[in-house]
Amino acid sequence: MGIRIHSSAVVHEKARIGDGTQIWLFCQVRENVTIGENCVFGKNVYVDSDVVIGKNCKVQNNVSLFHGVTLEDGVFCGPHVCFTNDLRPRAVNPDLSVKGADDWIVSKTLVKTGAALGANSTIVCGSTVGAWAMVAAGSVVTKDVPDYALVRGNPARVVGYVFADGDTAVFEGDVATSKKTGERLVRGKDGVVRAGEKVSA
Question: What's the predicted TM-score (pTM) here?
Fold first, then answer.
């Protein structure tokens, strides 16, 4: 299938790009980035050094993925999603000297398999977004998001749960069954899981 990189994109020679991935206009992919197979990067996406991205991810226009971010397989990032990587950002030290590479601490962010991040959402570093979770457009994630959770607002709060296809899960007791796919979610003291699966670590 091959890799498609638009002529306006800048991809570092030390980036590892999976087969079938498409990188479109004005993207920048830095050194030591790992991108899996069959990903799509829209216009003006920035991927910082050492970022890890799984296969089958869709990253829409103007998304910034900074150092310390990991996306597992099948993650969707809507337009203008912004990640951060410094919990206490400053341009300078207390003596007004310019901060250097050793003057701050990277706080990592993990987005698990199948999760979807809505347009203009901000993912504050140090957070984990659970598998198949959905973050509503414009939300600000400041803490971990459970698997299958639907979160929205600033700060983002759990307002429900969704199936893997994105439909809202309606629980009868502790079980929700998708009328379209037959997928079953089970709610327990440790969170929501797909029937037959263990609770995510």
Answer: 0.94
